[in-house]
Fold this protein.
Amino acid sequence: MSRGVRTLLVLLIALVMAGIASYAMYLGIQRMPAREVEVPSEPLVVAAKALPVGALIGPNDVRTIAWPRKVPLAGSFARPDEVVGRGLLAPVLENEPITTAKLAAKEAGAGLAPTIPLGMRAISVKVNEVVGVAGFVVPGAHVDVLATVGGKDETVTRAVVSNLTVLAAGTRYDQEKAKDGQAVPTTVVTLLATPEDAERIGLASLEGRLLLSLRNPLDIAPTSTPGVRLASLMAPPSQPPVEKTYKGRKMVVAAPPPPSPPPPPPPYTVETIRGAKRTTEEVKK
């Protein structure tokens, strides 16, 4: 037998022996009993299914799971009876822990009312497809309220309240449709406002016509404009348009219209009293 054949034979025997040893070790590991390490835990109440904001929690809506004791969750509950019968201030997902930050106070009920912070008010505004920004005024959006009031002399449009949060669009007060950018057609929009702003909106809705202006939720600066009047809107510009740069973007801005002419002075009058008779006559210049 040549030297090359002997070397090949030794290699084949070594491979066979290694395979047999590996297979035997695999069988030995498979037959070993599994060792379970017990981790100290405590019960934690979680949602048994996805629940929207304003929902009243029932016995079948929650369940308990084992939660590691070394990682406590602040504001959590250990018994389902501590959360049953309370309303949700925020939506929860399936298997998400129920915490005090997401629950309304006991006996506060469910629905929209418990979600209103203390000191704030919810006021509803009647809208259509135009006023409601084509259905994109959804729960969680931020808007300005514009009022158009027609006076005896001229019509004025101005932002009466700025940066209000939309609580509900119609009967919907969760953000389920708003997550993927879908529009929510509705005829009524409920806004979260201070008592003073609620009064301004109520007066503006009675005296004029309301419009909602959708704004970026990161833009929290108040809208402070003098408003626009019909006379200045239709007047020709006294200066050519000006090119400005806003946040890195160039845009052409029309020159401000000329100021409205002051109202004419009242006429001079003379009041004459003859006995019990009093007359007023206008003095012509």
Q: What stands out?
A: DSSP finds three helices and twelve strands in the chain. The CA atoms of residues 139 and 172 lie 8 Å apart. The chain has a mean pLDDT of 80.
